[in-house]
Amino acid sequence: xxxxxxxxxxxxxxxxTLRLSCAxxxxxxxxxxxxxxRQAPGKELEGVSxxxxxxxxxxYADSVKGxxxxxxxxxxxxxxxxxxxxxxxxxxxxxxxxAGMYTYCRGFPDRYAFPTWGQxxxxxxxx
Length: 127
Fold this sequence. Notes:
Blueprint lengths: L2 E5 L3 E2 L5 E8 L8 E6 L6 E7 L4 E4 L7 E6 L5 E6 L8 E7 L16 E2 L3 E5 L2
Parallel strand pairs: 2-11
Antiparallel strand pairs: 1-3, 3-8, 4-5, 4-9, 5-6, 7-8, 9-10, 9-11
C-alpha cells in the first residue's frame, strides 16, 4: 500500500533554512508525482510544490518560488525533499507530502488530484 512519511519539521528563525523529507513506499517511483502542501493556522491548504519522479520536473507556488527547491532521490530509499531557504513567519504551518493520481504534476495544486497523504510535519518560523 502507498505510504508517505514526512520528517524534518522544526522551529527555525526568520531567514533560516530547513529541509523536509518525504519517504515514500508501496508504489513505483516513476509512476506518481509527489506534492508538498501546507496548512497554516486559519488559512486554507496551499499547494507549495510538486515533483515528477519520472522526469525530475518541478512546479512551485509563486509564494515560494526562488526560495524552495524540491528534489527526489531513488538511489537507496525513495525520498522526496523540500529544501526551504529564507524562511519567514508566513511559511509557518503543517507540511504534508502527497502522492498524485498521475505521473506528472497534472492537477497540482488541486488537493483532490493527490489522494494519498502523509501525516504532516510542523514547521514554525519564529524568533
